[in-house]
Amino acid sequence: MKHYFKKMRGNGLRNSPRKPLSEIIWSWLGSFAGIYAIWLLNSHLGIQEDANLFLIGSFGATAVLVYGAPMGELSQPRNLVGGHVISAIAGIVAYKLLPEHAALAAALGVSVAIAAMLLTDTLHPPGGATALIAVIGGKSIHDLGFMYVFSPVLAGVLIMLAVALIVNNLSSNTARHYPKHWF
Question: What is the pLDDT of residues 6-15, one digit of tens each?
């Protein structure tokens, strides 16, 4: 038991120093452009502001990964696209199986999404939120059914990927590029 609690203390070492200001600026620019591009597409199509069909909450966390940590394994295109798509499907299926039991559907959707992402080597943490949104997102999300996979999820992810490819490769710092690998 003592060993169990000892593991919770950590090793006391901070592994990474603060990023240089130039990297912070590139991360800011990418996240701003990515989220704004999704919002603009929605506006261009004449969709009401309160019914944004391309922007979901999990994209905020995706922005942190693909613009703030573009070299991370969980930020790569396979993880970005695959993780969100797989998770959207898991969340939709969970809701369709258990529409009267939101708590069970939420737990099932997120846990199946995690297992499926691990099985397919597409782990992308915001995918858990994408699955959860499919369950708790309300009538407008539920009415989309499997279209949720294509819009907002896939459409939004592809916009963020395009912006990541552009912005993350603008830096003169050769250590900052995207992607590290596609598959």
Answer: 878 877 777 7
